[in-house]
Amino acid sequence: MDTQSLLEEIALEARGLLGGGRVADYIPELARVDPDRFGMALCRPDGEQCSAGDAEVPFSIQSISKVFTLTLALQIAGDKLWQRIGREPSGSAFNSLVQLEQEQGIPRNPFINAGALVVTDVIGSRLRDARGKLLEFMRGLCGNDGINFDEAVAQSEQSTGHRNAALAHFLRSFGNLENAPETVLDAYFHQCALAMSCIDVARAGLFLANGGVLPSTGERVIPAPMTKRINALMQVCGTYDSAGDFAYRVGLPAKSGVGGGILAVLPGHFSLCVWSPELDASGNSLAGTRALELFTMRTGLSVF
Ligand code: GLN
């Protein structure tokens, strides 16, 4: 079966799970999303692209943005970044405060919120217009100048994100935030509020499946060994504290977001983005995870 038909078949099957999960509602604006959406897009380094369902509808990428800000921070700071952030799965909620206190303000990994705030801080210390630069970076990666921040989502999170504000102040109290918490939070809420479609996200993540090079332009985004490391981090920390179950079922490095999107990559082969807003108990897209599982089962393609 060709990939296009396979995606359509999987989309149909995964849609059967709609109604079984819950849309994230702790960010009020996200609760307004249509729960029945389902999209899927796959890109290969040779330029092949297939998609099914609502693959062209922009959604809030939320924590998927953490992969791209990590890439920028590694470009800026290289391995020095690891003096301020760990590389282990957290085993606790992505917005937990307790672990941060126990571990003296060094977040376990760059994909929990505390780690992502430090990443955003690193970018903000180096680049004057960090928000603008991130947008430019993302537009370049996906080749779509039309993508933008969803201001309503950013404002919604800004006005209700007390836990993230607490994390930022906490980091600052440990000396692990160089910029004002308000400045870092503003950049962080905007990166989470990037609105992109499955096709945009799959295209943006393709360098991770292509040794760090953007296939469309031949431009090197990061050195190949960094790609291996980002993929490794996605594998062990990219899907909240169910990364083990996700690896067991799907078998691909991936990063999910509470908007219901998941970016997964198979190095050397493809990048794949699914979106379905209803989440499972651990915060990953319910139908999206199932769709990825079906894809790796039916194609036999996974890192394992
Ligand atoms: N903006 C969300 C938050 O900080 C992102 C969380 C997520 O997608 N895991 O709470």
TrEMBL record:
EC numbers: 3.5.1.2
Molecular-function GO terms, alphabetical: glutaminase activity
GO biological process: glutamate biosynthetic process; L-glutamine catabolic process
Keyword GTP-binding: no
Gene3D superfamilies for the chain: DD-peptidase/beta-lactamase superfamily (3.40.710.10)
Chain sites annotated for binding substrate: S63, N113, E157, N164, Y188, Y240, V258
Broad class of enzyme this protein falls into: hydrolase
Pfam families, sorted: Glutaminase
NCBIfam families from the UniProt entry: Gln_ase, PRK00971.1-1, PRK00971.1-2
Subunit-level organization: Homotetramer.
Family the UniProt entry places it in: Belongs to the glutaminase family.
Protein name, entry field: Glutaminase
